[in-house]
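User: Can you predict the 3D structure of Protein C19orf12 homolog? Sequence below.
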Amino acid sequence: MNVSLEANGFIDEILKLTELQEMKVAMKNNVLAGFFVGVTTLCGGLFFGPLGIAIGSTFGGCTASYVLRGTFKSVPQIIKEDLTPEQRKKLAASVQELCSTHNIQTALQLALYLKDDKALLLMVIQLIKTFLESELAVKTIESCTLPSSKA
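Assistant: Sure. Here are the predicted structure tokens for Protein C19orf12 homolog:
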């Protein structure tokens, strides 16, 4: 496969995708946080009745939120900050391979195609989601929505 694509150019174009900026992934400790909120809600309800449920869940939710701040990151933030140079090259190679099947040779062409080709956009997003789940063992918590096409 003779592809004349610059890896950084592809990564830069991918980082510009609004759909990826809206996707967030859980980095760690989410099950523990849910368990903590459940326990504080249960304890509040047992000790103080219906008002205790509200107090316990509020306390548990606020505490879990404070403890877990910064553990949810956007996909572009993960690509910029958490991927090693080798992983970035591997991601770029995967995107380049996908682009070569659509006869896209440059990052500029990729940017132009992504604006108009929703199927290609979905393939790129799925590729990145799969890559992050396999390479970093993260889980997507917000799925992206594509802008509706105007008739």
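The helical segments are 7-15, 18-22, 30-67, 75-81, 85-101, 107-116, 118-135. Residues 28-69 form one domain.
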